Amino acid sequence: MLEVEMDIFSGTPNPSWVLTKEEESQVLEIIEADPDQISPVSTEKEKFGLGYRGFLVRTVKDEVAWHQLQSRLDRRLPEEFRVGSRPTESDASIAQYLLEGGPARRNGLDDELRDAASRGVALVQPPPPEGGFESQPQPPTAKAEPDTSPEADEEDYLRGYTWHRPCPSSYFYSNADIFNRPEFIYRTNCYAYACNYLYGGRYAHPGAHGGKPATSMTVDSIRGGLYVDGWADNCQPKSLTIAAVVWPNWDFHFYRLATGSPYWVWGHKLATNAAVHYDNCGYAIRRTPHYLGTIWQHPANCCRGGYTDWVGWFYQNNDEAYCKQPPWIPGR
Question: Which of 36, 46, 69, 207 has the most CB atoms around its CB within 10 Å?
């Protein structure tokens, strides 16, 4: 028996469903004809951004058809894999069948999500060379300690936004490598990463720790959930600094300030995918020296895909902010 999960959200649960026997037979038939359509759930060769990232397919119950397919192929299939992230020249695409065929329609997949997926997988591409951007920041130190923000320099705001300067005293944790460890990467989401809390859960949700989870994917609801969890609009002594955005009516996403001067690097984690320091366009979310001046790339002006609604900057007087997932998932 196969379960499929449309990998599209960052904070909330993805749409998922169990295939019927007929649907499973169709998927297995396509795999047998073109096994190169499948890829690992996570690999360094594929860097995903916010948005549609293909389908995750996993076995939830061993059945004869699965074992028979395994015996006919010259390689063993993993118990969970991704489809749709690799281009295929085959007339039969597993992802297209799942998206446009019976499975999605039978389970009432919303047209907005189907349209988002039809625009293609959100794979991050390198930035254009003529801009002179550094696509990857230098690996910052993992040491965490309060840091004092320097006096602001005069910047040339090349991307059309003003920089929201960090608080005078902040905690910086550059620990994406820890969140990306096998024991944590699949058990944390964007909010858990923003809270710098490894045990927040796969569906850590604004307001759940405070007892009043955000009930809708709107700016006001997410902001209210953050207040309940102890986040404030103004600087706090030795605080974590985060930013929140919303894909209207569907999902939330968070960023955390990971390092201080001189680069001011921001990090974020996409659902159970790796925590990174670049945006959907491949640009490092950081201060970058440029021959025309200084480029400030930050959550308010970076490429965010469908997460168009800005919620705000938030602060908490903690080096680790508690968060958790609710017993039920609001808005689903």
Answer: 207
Statement to judge: residues 181 and 53 lie in one domain: no
Domain that holds residue 110: 2-118
Contact between 279 and 131 under an 8 Å Cβ cutoff? The reply is: no
DSSP secondary-structure letter at 194?
H
**Mean pLDDT, to the nearest integer, of 299-326?**
94
Q: Cβ of 328: how many Cβ atoms within 10 Å?
A: 9
| Cis amide bond preceding 262, omega within 30 | yes
Q: Are residues 50 and 94 in the same domain?
A: yes
- Are 151 and 297 found together in one domain? yes
Mean pLDDT of the chain: 82
User: Same domain, yes or no, for 199 and 297?
Assistant: yes
For residue 245, pLDDT over 90 is answered with yes
* Token pair belonging to 318: 């903690």
Examine the domain organization and report whether 111 and 167 are in the same domain: no
Alpha-carbon distance 139 to 142, whole Å?
9
Looking at residue 43, its pLDDT comes to 78
Given pLDDT bands bounded at 50, 70 and 90, which one contains residue 21? confident
pLDDT of res. 65: 63
Partners of 288 in beta bridges: 295
The 3-class SS string of 267-323 reads EEECCCCCEECECCCCCECCEEEECCEEEECCCCCCCCCCCCEEEEEEEECCCCCCC
